[in-house]
Specification:
Blueprint: E1 3-8, H1 25-46, E2 50-54, H2 60-65, E3 69-72, H3 78-91, E4 96-100, H4 109-116, E5 124-129, E6 136-142, H5 155-166, E7 170-172, H6 176-179, H7 185-194
Parallel strand pairs: 1-2, 1-4, 2-3, 5-7
Antiparallel strand pairs: 4-6, 5-6
């Protein structure tokens, strides 16, 4: 199976704005860079074809340094960017796609393998929810047009409903490294305190 991992990213300058109350701009951007590099490194270890979709062309050097490819997003919005990246994957005859957010500080190769395993042998979907069980931190799908992207508020339930509508096998992948995303000051405090155990 030809597989591609897509990592959407807003760009370092506008990343992690919810941490602005506890981190200055330089520290916030440095943290966003550290998180992105971690996710790209883990993703690349699992799959040689990793694409970052972002409206920020300034990510080019960082992305290339991680062995990934940057696709500059034309429009606005996460789902629109992922649709653009999916169109490119379709043009490249990619059979399976995985989406990983770029702010998963404890992501491991085993986490990525667990997300990909349900689609290795045939059609299906895998969804990795966030800690609250509301958002989607990871998504794997085969075929790549299996469902529309429904990232945003309540995306875990929305993606699960789309999978049921499509009649495809669905796996819910609950792993700490996929569930913990670093968005808020509380998340940052938890990560500093607990590290990989967060």
């Amino acid at each position: 199976m030809s597989l591609r991992i897509i990592v959407p990213h807003r760009g370092l300058a506008v990343a992690k704005t919810r941490l602005a109350q506890v981190l200055d701009d330089a520290d916030r951007q440095a943290l966003a860079l550290r998180l992105l590099e971690r996710v790209l490194g883990v993703a690349h270890a699992a799959c040689s074809d990793v694409v970052v979709i972002s409206p920020s062309a300034a990510l080019g050097e960082v992305v290339a340094g991680a062995g990934a490819t940057l696709v500059v997003q034309r429009g606005m919005g996460l789902n629109a960017g992922l649709d653009q990246a999916r169109d490119a994957a379709r043009a490249d005859s990619i059979q399976g796609l995985a989406i990983l957010h770029g702010d998963l500080p404890n992501l491991t190769s085993a986490d990525v393998e667990a997300l990909l395993q349900p689609i290795e042998d045939g059609a299906g979907l895998a969804i990795a929810p966030d800690r609250a069980g509301a958002g989607t931190n990871g998504l794997a799908l085969r075929p790549i047009d299996a469902i529309p992207f429904r990232f945003g508020l309540g995306s875990f339930a929305a993606h699960r409903e789309e999978a049921q509508r499509a009649g495809l096998p669905l796996a819910v992948v609950e792993r700490p490294g996929l569930a913990f995303d670093l968005d808020t000051p509380a998340d940052l405090a938890r990560w500093i305190e607990l590290g990989d155990a967060a």
